[in-house]
Specification:
By secondary structure, this protein is mainly alpha-helical. The longest helix is centred in the C-terminal third of the chain and has 26 residues. The protein is globular.
């Protein structure tokens, strides 16, 4: 299998992961339970799934492996709490400031250079996402917004740590992260008992919105750069309103369509330019 075909498959896996991640906002809102209880149970279910589909974990206890686990747990917990304390739009938009941090640290941490094209795409993505959520953003939910900003930092470091393990297995970081998130959420799982509908939401969150996409992403991260791994998933927040449209009949506005188009075109253009550059003769 050629490097190019591996990269193409990896890009498709990242896209598939982003699609599955995009159900997070609507499913978290659907579950009627304590936010930390949701985060803990979601990670518990995801942990069982990852242990089922992965090989025997190989623990090296490297900085990247431990750092990835901590960053994963922090991202999972903070995003759930932020989604409960502020709007889903605020939470997802502020989380996806992550490409900026990935770009800032990729050269130093991974020795992966960020080009002027990457910075241009990051700028266009930020503009597009701002337009996309223009009519939904609110200054309410102050602490939820603060937590969402922090989640952007932890998400960036999660992807950086996973990419750092491109020659090893990043799966162990995901397993460790789910263990940590489950332990943090454990005391809050006993505050009340979720109803049947909430349990369905928790199972969907644990397996299809968390476990499966991160399993796919752990395979893909070995063949895409850190900046690619965070720019491609920016399609995730754009898909959220599509599910709302299909399930609740809420139509996106003109600004949302314009902003979403900018993001999709920017990410697609970068992929095309990068592919053409790789295929061009030296």
């Amino acid at each position: 299998m050629s490097l190019l075909s591996e990269r193409k498959q990896a890009v498709l896996l990242v896209v598939a992961s982003a699609i599955l991640w995009s159900f997070g906002g609507i499913l978290i809102k659907y579950v009627n339970w304590h936010p930390l209880g949701i985060a803990g149970m979601r990670s518990t279910i995801a942990l069982l799934f990852l242990l089922l589909v992965s090989r025997k974990p190989k623990w090296t206890w490297s900085v990247a492996q431990i750092g990835g686990g901590i960053a994963y747990a922090a991202t999972m917990i903070l995003f759930v709490v932020a989604t409960k304390l502020t709007t889903a739009a605020n939470a997802i938009l502020l989380q996806y400031t992550a490409p900026i941090y990935v770009a800032l640290f990729s050269n130093w941490f991974l020795d992966e250079k960020i080009t002027w094209l990457d910075w241009l795409i990051i700028f266009l993505v930020m503009v597009g996402m701002s337009l996309f959520f223009l009519d939904k953003l609110t200054t309410s939910g102050f602490w939820g917004n603060i937590l969402a900003i922090i989640t952007g930092i932890t998400l960036a470091w999660l992807f950086l740590f996973l990419r750092k393990q491109r020659n090893d297995s990043p799966m162990e970081s995901l397993i460790l992260g789910n263990i940590l998130a489950a332990l943090v959420g454990l005391p809050f799982m006993f505050t009340s008992i979720p109803d049947g509908a909430s349990w369905l939401g928790l199972v969907l969150l644990g397996i299809f919105q968390l476990g499966l996409p991160y399993f796919l992403f752990s395979i893909a991260i070995k063949h895409v750069t850190a900046i690619e791994s965070i720019l491609i998933p920016t399609i995730e927040p754009l898909l959220n309103p599509i599910w709302v449209l299909l399930l609740m009949g809420e139509k996106p506005g003109v600004w949302a369509i314009a902003g979403g188009s900018i993001v999709l075109l920017s990410v697609t253009a970068r992929g095309v330019v990068t592919t053409l550059h790789k295929n061009s003769p030296e």
